[in-house]
Design a protein that fits this description.
It contains eight helices and ten strands. By secondary structure, it is an alpha/beta fold. The protein folds into two domains: 162 residues, P-loop containing nucleotide triphosphate hydrolases (Rossmann fold, 3-Layer(aba) Sandwich), CATH 3.40.50.300; 68 residues, no CATH class. Bound molecules: adenosine-5'-triphosphate (ATP). It comes from Marisediminitalea aggregata.
Amino acid sequence: MIDEVLAIDQLGFQYGEKQVLSDISLSLNSGKYYALLGPNGAGKSTLFSLICQLLRPVSGSLNLMGKNTQKHTRFALKQLGIVFQQPTLDLDLTVTQNLQYHASLQGMSGALTRQRIEEELARFGLADRAKDKVRALNGGHRRRVEIARALLHKPKLLLLDEATVGLDQNTRDAMNTHLRALCDSEGITILSSTHLIDEVKPNDELIVLLNGQVKLQQRCEEAMKSLGVETVQQLYRQMHMSGGQ
Ligand SMILES: Nc1ncnc2c1ncn2[C@@H]1O[C@H](COP(=O)(O)OP(=O)(O)OP(=O)(O)O)[C@@H](O)[C@H]1O
């Protein structure tokens, strides 16, 4: 079994003249939850776009499951599930139709599609909403559908770009618990960007991006211990003061 799911080596990116990411090197292992923290404009969404190949790196390389993403595009896209910051469900289609559309883009057979939709909707407590139009769902349920959709083809790496924004506290808590359980039960790796520091748990792997550079990659609990702080808030504030904006 390959333990390293994503390897990023000396990645650099710029929009025109503007350098946005510099010398990013990261290693993400299977079954772990990585919380990506960084202020507005730090480059989190750009990093996600590079991983899912909406953008091409200016320098450096990305390997997914041991294969270079630019040389093995289709393979790489099959390893990824993505939930973008902006909702992307079709509100006028049913939950099942939205999922079927994704499955057909992934080239999944009809039988497999039916089976996987049933499994994922059950897992997310949405089995009884399968035939409802997405428009009829509340924000928390819509997000769950988006995550179920991203998992349909059993990706190795799930990218969540501020996936809990706009959800109430209870829904966020439930989703966060659920996502970490996915890492344990399915061995899936999650890279999740957030501004909500209270969502980062001591057992998470923490990645802090500041000014387009990785300032920290360490298990959260260990990072707090080595910096002598008691909360993730304090840790993040300290990182800012020692190298941020
Ligand atoms: N298409 C673009 N063209 C030019 N500059 C861009 C473009 N997209 C983003 N940028 C700039 O690149 C930098 C990084 O943006 P990015 O959206 O990756 O940051 P972020 O960490 O995701 O921020 P946020 O938390 O606000 O979503 C910012 O300075 C932003 O203004």
